[in-house]
Amino acid sequence: MFKSITLGALLVLLLAFLGFQYYITAVPDLEEPVSVEETRFIERDNSLVVTLIDSSGDRFTLGLRGDIDKDPEETALFFIRNPDLVPYVYWPGLRSNDEKRVLELLEDMVGNETQDGAASRIYTVLKNRN
Fold this sequence. Notes:
- The chain is α+β, with helices and mostly antiparallel strands.
- Helices cover 41% and strands 21% of the residues.
- Strand 2 and strand 3 form a beta hairpin.
- Helix 2 (97-112) packs across helix 3.
- The protein is elongated, with a radius of gyration of 17 Å.
- The N and C termini lie far apart (53 Å).
- The model has no long low-confidence stretch (mean pLDDT 86).
């Protein structure tokens, strides 16, 4: 009996961990209108970082690390889904489904209105390699 309860608790814990991991690594569905809250260029890491905010106040931070001008194919995409809850930086694979979801999010945002140059720049880099 004790082994069954322990095994059941471990399975529930594993499922909770998998759900949490999915939450922090998934691209959120931001409610329209989505706008740029903050843009930063970090010279030390050669990173371009954009923080988006939707109509309900949810934030999504994304960026590219690497030389965008000289070698855009080698720049790495990263994002933080909810930095207030879990400050976890996720690095999706090059040309992965997560990268395509970020591209779609930026495409909707850039297509609807004129946006900040940094968001358009990240969109252009992702669009050219997909």
